[in-house]
Amino acid sequence: MTYGRDENGDRTESRGGGGLATALRGLVEQHDVTWIANAMTDEDRVVAAERQHRTVLVAQNERTYDLFYNVMANPTLWFVQHMLWDLAYAPDFDHGAWRAYADVNAKMAHAVIAQLDGAPGAAVFFQDYHLYLAPAIARRERPDAVMSHFVHVPWPETDAWFVLPEEARCDVFAGLLANDVVGFHTERWRRNFLRGCADVLGARVDGDVVSYGGRRTLVTAHPIGIDRAEFDALAQDDEVLAREREIVASRPELLVVRVDRTDPSKNIVRGFRAFGLMLERHPDLRGRVRMLALLDPSRQDVPEYSDYVAAVEREARALGEAVDLRIGDDFKRSVAAYRQFDVLFVNAVFDGLNLVSKEAPYANTRDGMVVLSENAGSFEELRDEGVLRVNPFDVSQQADALHAALTMDADERRRRLEAIRAHVRAHDVAAWGEAQLADLDRVPSLR
After folding, report:
1. Could you tell me the CATH superfamily of domain 60-225+430-446?
2. Alpha-carbon gap, residue 1 to 24, rounded angstroms
3. For 197-223, what is each residue's pLDDT tens digit?
4. N or C terminus: which one in the chain shows less Cβ crowding within 10 Å?
């Protein structure tokens, strides 16, 4: 949750954006946990001082946090892990931002240590690329703590990490190996990490266990699932149904939907170009099909992100009425669009998973087809369940896939959607949470 104040001065809570916040909220509701997070707004800092409930919000120096988040975590580490850098021009490594990243990680680690003082037997679950250094700091202070770290973004092959200076890339890998368990969404990302441990640190890799610095770390892959109870409830939510009625009232015969953050890794510009190319090749579809693009503003303090939004808007304007572009934070409109799509279009450059590709078919009411990037982590799960595969850099192939999805036989569409739904039902966020706990059961054998 992010906290703020409304026009009446009353405290507001807003739902965290992105798949990670969505999935972890479901996990928190099912287990007795304390959530430790950075305070990101002024009101967050007030809540942090009040120390309410089981959420610990850690207040950071504003300048330090800006360097940590807007220079090092995003874009540097994010661009490394999604392989987005144009290396002839960027990045120029910012040592001050790296020190800020380390400072924020240290404060978060000490917040963890403080919690362990009150509950020394508790397990610690670190999440994602913001906190790669924190586990090593916590381990030095609490050597017997049980710690796990789940990485929700792609893990690239070793060469990508040489964008970082030697000390920094070694600290990233060593920080993760201070955990007892490191988890990824896919075997692809897990394999890359294991190879990187050997290449960067000279660590010994034996199957799914890495030995380094006198410790052994289990490395696993468990793709996260959706919170089915949340989406079952949303299917009856008055606001969702009202937004769905708006979509139905204005929709053409066929509706292509994409729901993304305004992030360069989501490949929105190429997606618009593919949609336009499909209309050029199949003019009979003009007026019969529209793309509804619902985009959540993301990291607009980072120049690379704000520039990308401008490029997205230019492409949308070029397509005219064929694209309905909405930029704003409106999760319930996204759920309404999930229910109404004939084709869901996910063409990410790289994604750790992509929960939209699971949420949307689960909610859909129209036997919608899913066109999915082969570089989305969820493709590893869904490739045999009915999705249409696309290469995110091949605009022509994406155009052909969109046409195939829009014109597919109704029985085949229904068969494919039901196969995806069956998989999503069987592999929800509760199953993912239980897999994390099962991994921790293996920790004693590592020590």
Report:
1. Glycogen Phosphorylase B; (3.40.50.2000)
2. 11
3. 999 999 999 999 999 999 999 999 999
4. C
